[in-house]
Amino acid sequence: MPAFSYSARNGSGQLVRGLADGASASAVADQLLGTGLTPLDIKTAALGETDKPAFSMSMNIGPKPKVKHDDLLLFSRQLYSLLKAGIPLTRALSGLQESAEPAMAAVIQGTRESLESGHELGTSLARQGGVFSHFYIAMVRVGELTGRLDEVFIRLFHHLAFEKLMREQVRSALRYPSFVVVVML
Questions:
Q1: Residues 104 and 71: beta-carbon distance below 8 Å
Q2: How far apart are CA 153 and CA 139, in angstroms?
């Protein structure tokens, strides 16, 4: 299905831009109208534009809630467990979407819809507007190529847990010096 870049206005009048897949520009316009967006301009996406991460249509409406680091940790761990149990990827994502926080549920929904439209998992994650790091996406793509996606998700879980631990230790180490500077001032 071809990709189209669009600009539209939401219900509060804010300008929204993004990419959408559709059979034609009028089909994309119908999709946008169905989500409460008023299309202003719809063009066929340039060749290099479709490789860039794009916001899912559901992520563009209104103020975007932020996906927390803990949500990514939980997502990676749960996806590992579900894939290890032999559950198909789209079914696993559907189950995770139901139990996730609203911001993460929207990301999972966008990923699942992208998968169902024929994209690979790495590409689907990359299209979620910067929620997943380049490292995360690259690891998922390696897992897809090697057929060891479940192992990749447990390694990503461990990597994200290590990142969280390091952030907490840095904050803890900087707490006392910042307190001393404030008292000195």
A1: yes
A2: 8
Question: Three-class SS of residue 158?
Answer: helix
The answer to whether the beta carbons of residues 5 and 17 sit under 8 Å apart is yes
Within 12-162, strands assigned E span 15-21, 38-44
pTM as predicted: 0.62
- Tell me which H or E stretch contains 9: strand 3-9
Span 29-48, pLDDT tens digits:
778 777 777 887 888 876 55
Radius of gyration of the CA atoms of the chain, in A: 19
Instruction: Enter the tokens of residue 124.
Output: 């689907």
| Cα 3 off chain centre by | 18
Contact 9, 16 (CB under 8 A): yes
